[in-house]
Amino acid sequence: MSPVTLSRFLIEEQRKKNVIGSDLRLLIEVVARACKSIASAIGKGGLTGVLGSAGSDNIQGEAQKKLDVISNEILLEANEWGGHLAAMASEEMEHPHPIPNRYPKGEFLLLFDPLDGSSNIDVNVSVGTIFSVLRCPDGMEPGEQAFLQPGTRQVCAGYAVYGPTTLLVLTLGDGVNIFTLDRELGSFVLTQENVRIPEDTREFAINASNARHWEAPVKRYIDELLAGKDGPRGHDFNMRWVASMVADVHRIISRGGIFLYPLDSKTAAKGGKLRLMYEANPMAFIIEQAGGRATDGRGRILDIVPAGLHQRVPVILGSRNEVERATAYHIA
Ligand code: AHG
Ligand code: MN
Ligand code: MN
Question: In the CATH scheme, what is the code of domain 203-331?
């Protein structure tokens, strides 16, 4: 059978299952095209001088890399003129970006982390783009308030991983599918359908340099994993930490695992490290759609009612049984 491109996949989803309409189809195609441009910019690296710092800070108070700014611009420019969006919001911008008056407006709100894992960009380690789509509530101006909807309202979420291959991982709320960029064809091609995360795992991901700042339930959970076959779990666990959420989540999508960026005394004042709207919600939606779980240690991430566009939250996600155990330690 001939390869199923992203375009064909989306048309068939619309025709057979009616899970998406033309506007959402266009939106996903445009985001995918922007991800191809970002992949191309990243791929050129030192040849075009795109590595290194931009010399500015973003709204999160973090130093921006040149590729943070370039990726943000690529996504804004690609999505302004299609008529499918009411507004966009980005990790890199303080306020929502309105659609310029010269273009028609649509019903969707697009949120993105244009370049995730940017501390890895200068060392040639995988980075990515994360995005989430909401509907602008009827009769509401597409300002900040319109975006403050719980993750359960997402109509679509996805991420691109710029690694040895460029992948697009997508959910429309009907399972998770993976597309691989064929660089010669210039198309994303469906390479894995209806991905499922194993319920059990012996692999965990956490930045252990924060151990002394963790809360007691996280210390207990990780100590038990580290004790391996001599401890209460009775077998050894392996550890991985890329420090690009997309890469760590993609490993979990591929072979299971648990990822934790828990609350710790360093980030407690901000609510956590990872951003609810640009990182936690889209990843939680994808993980749940693949049969995994995603909590903030207390409850389901997708149920959190956001208080602000740039809100941060603790994140525990991945293989169902491990996430449930780590969450239970918090509630006990
Ligand atoms: P970003 O590059 O978009 O700011 O995100 C970085 C995030 C996330 O990708 C990763 O899981 C985490 O920060 C890594 O944090 P540490 O450097 O504290 O390990
Ligand atoms: Mn990020
Ligand atoms: Mn980022």
Answer: 3.40.190.80
Check residue 228 and report its DSSP letter.
G
pTM above 0.85, yes or no: yes
Sign of CA dihedral 305, 307, 308, 311: negative
Q: What is the pLDDT of residue 300?
A: 98
- Nearest alpha carbon, ligand 1 atom 14: 243
**1 alpha carbon – ligand 2 mean position (Å):** 37
Query: Which tokens is 132 given?
Result: 């989430």
Instruction: Verify whether ligand 1 is closer than 6 Å to residue 264 (CB atom).
Output: no
The structure tokens listed for 10 are 């989306």
Architecture of domain 6-192: 2-Layer Sandwich (3.30)
Alpha-carbon distance 243 to 117, whole Å? 6
Query: Is residue 303 within 8 Å of residue 152, measured between CB atoms?
Result: yes
Which structure tokens are listed for 166? 């460029």
Q: Which residue among 274, 278, 310 has the greatest number of ligand 1 atoms within 8 angstroms of its CB, and so is best to mutate?
A: 274
Ligand 3 geometric centre to CA of 69 (Å): 10
Report the half-sphere exposure of 197 (CA within 13 A, side-chain side). 33
Which ligand is located closest to the Cα atom of residue 273? 1
Residues above pLDDT 70, as percent of the chain:
100
Q: What is the pLDDT of residues 315-330, one digit of tens each?
A: 999 999 999 999 999 9
Q: By three-state DSSP, how is residue 95 classified?
A: coil
